[in-house]
Fold this sequence. Notes:
Layout: H1 14-22, H2 44-49, E1 51-54, E2 63-65, E3 71-72, E4 81-82, H3 91-101, E5 105-110, H4 121-132, E6 137-142, H5 147-156, E7 159-165, H6 171-177, E8 178-183, E9 186-189, H7 190-210, E10 214-221, H8 230-240, E11 244-249, H9 264-275, E12 279-280, E13 292-293, H10 301-305
Parallel strand pairs: 1-5, 3-4, 5-6, 6-7, 7-10, 10-11, 11-12
Antiparallel strand pairs: 1-13, 2-8, 8-9
The structure holds FE(8)-S(7) cluster and iron/sulfur cluster.
Amino acid sequence: MLKILQPGNDEGSPRACTAQRMRMHATGKLAHLDGRHPCFSSTVEGHNKAARLHLPVSPACNIECRFCRRDFNSTEHRPGVARQLIRPEETPSIVERALELCPEINVVGIAGPGDTLATDHALRAFELIHRSHPRLIKCLSTNGLRLEERAERIAAAGVETITVTVNAVDPAIQAQLCTGIRYRGKRLEGVEGAKVLTGNQIAGIRRAAQLGLTIKVNTVLTPGINDAHIGQIAAAVAEAGATIMNVIPLLPQHELSHIPQPDFVQLSQARGEAEKHLDIFTHCNRCRADAVGIPGKTDYSMQLYGRPIAEATFSHG
Ligand code: CLF
Ligand code: SF4
């Protein structure tokens, strides 16, 4: 068992203590998940108890984030990376094996390596797991482009918690973070694509909230692009029905490799703006798409997925 502590994880730091104080106004909407879900617990203690299993089933994406670089390897610790893709049909037996390795697993999450709703692989996997392991919490992470149209099927598959990555609610800002989207058979670039994406994200959050799902919003804090926009994002997603927000510092790479990673002060200010509107989550571990264990504490992914890396035969979108 490998112990890991990653830079995105604030637990025990002054910044986490500040965040704990800031969460004094917690809405109580997360009480049913406290201690059961590492990313939806309103206390650091809850985060430290619950383990999650990520299933890397989603092969492709339908948008082009300028900071995204998906890859297959066993060394990098960041979203968008997995050792291999697995097929939805394999997932119930993988869940069984993961529970033998790590009985603390409460949550089965799908967070890539592509977008979970760009194909139906993630939903097929959740439908199978909901039948084989109904008591595990199912958690889906998406860019939100197709969330509204798929919300009913997501809820019917037993998904309880959703993360939507919303990096802007102003299309002019979103267009600086995302080159284009593919939607209903067309490629839409720049502000035209950003308008569809931002509109669909808010509509999807609203529909998922109406269906009783608990929603977290992840926002990649990108200095010079959306750092003065965090409060507006938080207000808009809270109004639509999101409960908690996770402001993540940019990992400078791909087309945004020239932008410096936000520092402590920038991150604290952004979280302070977000906290005016909804709860905040401060101990994100920026997990791989095949992470297994308690975030930042235990990692069983090599034991579970450590077989040779399959050749990638799909498009990265
Ligand atoms: Fe996984 Fe994400 Fe569900 Fe958590 S991770 S799909 S909500 S079970 Fe959590 Fe990891 Fe941060 Fe994601 S610490 S990267 S926020
Ligand atoms: Fe990458 Fe996710 Fe953006 Fe798709 S939505 S381009 S997988 S960061």
